[in-house]
Structure formats: C-alpha cells, structure tokens
Fold each of these.
Amino acid sequence: MAQGLPDRVDCVRLAEDTAVLERVYPLGEMPRLQDLLADTRGSVRANFAFAKIESGRCGVTVTVEAHPHLVCQRCMQGFEFAAAASSEIEFAANAGVNPGDSQREAYLTDGGLVSLRDLAEEELLLALPIVAACTTPQTCGRAPTGPADEARHAVEDTTRPFAALQDLLKKTR
C-alpha cells in the first residue's frame, strides 16, 4: 500500500462521491490467511467501487485478484492458486439493522468506518477453496522427472484397486 493512504475509510462519504479505490496488500499482512499459506510471498490486488444503493444505504463492490501459495491437503506441498472474486456489500451501522431482501452481503461498520484491508482479506478468504489441493491429483506434490516416471504414473492410473481382493477370492474357492 502506498505511504499516506488510509486503510480505514468513511464509507458514507466515499459512497456519496462514488469513489473507486485500488489497493495492493502483501499476503503476509493478512493474519486470517496465514494458516492457509505455504509462504507469504505475493500480494492481493483489491478494487473498491463505492456507491449509494437502492435502499438509501451505502455499499461497495469489492473485487480481488491474487495468486497465493497454498498448502495442498493431499501432499502437504505448496502450490500456486489463482484466486479471483467479486462481491457486492451493503454497510450497516449496527448489528440490529436488517438489510431485508437485499441481494448484497451485509457488513458492519465501526462508526461509519471500514478497513479496506479487512474487506480485501474477507473477499480473498471467500475466493479460496475449502480444502486446498493441487490441480492434478496424478502428479500431486511431484513432477515427473522423465519418461520412466511418466510411464510409471500411467501404469498407476490404470491399476485396479480391487485386483488383490479378486486374487484372494480365487484362492479361497
């Protein structure tokens, strides 16, 4: 984030001005992400488009893009995940305010102020998979090192998991 730019902003004033802000935050500055990350390299690019909405309240459309290195839950190795998401948020001054039949997510402000970093972190968390896993299970956590390794992977893919059970049944007859 550029020096001098505030993180906590007045959402009502920005909505009245229909302001559009863009911020870049290092992933290492997002505490709720830390347990999911293989390392803290990288950043999240966040765009905030504030506006007044039909209900008369203020809202924001939050868009994030990032390429965090997550921990695969199959092989426990790090891998890069392309995350992108966008949500429409309606601000509420207190927890008792019900946004009614609004299609937007409700977000509680702190005296009319919101943390842009917190909004970006929340949106990025929603964009991440519930269980992180490498995209190709056949090579999860390891890349083929040559033709012999690729052939071994091909053989592993065509093996039948109950072949040993079939052999055992033949012996007992």
Amino acid sequence: MSTTAGLEAANEQLRSAVEGRHVQAAEAACCEGGQLQWQYTEDEPIPPDWILRGEQELKQRELPPVYLIGDSLLKDETSPAEQLLDKARQTVAQRRQTYGPPTEHFRKTVGMINAAFGDVLNRPLTEGDWAIIMMLDKIARDQGPTPTDDTPIDMAGYAACLAECRHTG
C-alpha cells in the first residue's frame, strides 16, 4: 500500500470514527444537545479541514484552554516544576519497587560506609545523612563537565527519601 493510499485509509477511518462520535453525542444529548454547527450527511461528506474548523470554532467560543484528545484526555498544561516533581515521584516509586524502601537501602549503604570509615567519623551516619550525601553527590555531578537533565529529578527524589527517612526514622 502506498503512503498516499495509507493516509487516505487512515483519514477514512478517522472520518468514520468522528461520525460515530457525532451519533453518540446526539444520542447522549451532549455537546449542546448534539447541535453541532456542521452536521454530517450522505450528500455532504466530512470536509478534509473539519478538525481545523472545529478547533477554530472552539477558539472563537470563550472557553478555558482545554483541548480534547481522544476520549476526553486533557492537554497537559503543567509547569516545568510540576513535571519535574511528577517525574521524581514516578522515579521514587519505581526505585522502591526495584530496591525497596530508601530506609532499608540507605541503612545497608551507611552500614558499609560506617564500617569502612568508622575511625574517622565522630558519629555513625544515619539513613537521612545518606540522602543528603546523595543530594550533594548530584550537585557535584551537575557542576561537572557534563550535567544531565535528570539531576534535578534525582535531587527531588533524594529530598523525598530524606523526608521519608526522617518520618520513619
């Protein structure tokens, strides 16, 4: 199948799906009671720029900036800070599944460090100390020749681990 034929087939599937959504909307009495400014009929097929027309119509209505995608997924308008925190939360959850709670993982790590460096420490390190050490490590790495985009995510994750260590410790 040629690219053009493939696109035409995909467009026809989209048109068919849109027609089905129109029927559902009218039956459910939504979308202003199913009263759309343009109605599909057998005599007048769906125009190629139908989606663009709909977008222009939505922009002309003074509605909040919500863009429907598929079955009502909303456009992501989160800030970079919120995206970072969401990613850190996902990373912490994934690491918990892989390595267990940070208190257990950090307890093992600081145990080994305390054993190796016990003669130079004034007191044994705690799990919370390790979270701080890891944040400092991430800062040092970020100040090196090749900082990475995941450093702020890692730092936020270790800050969350510190809070958990203080809460459970």
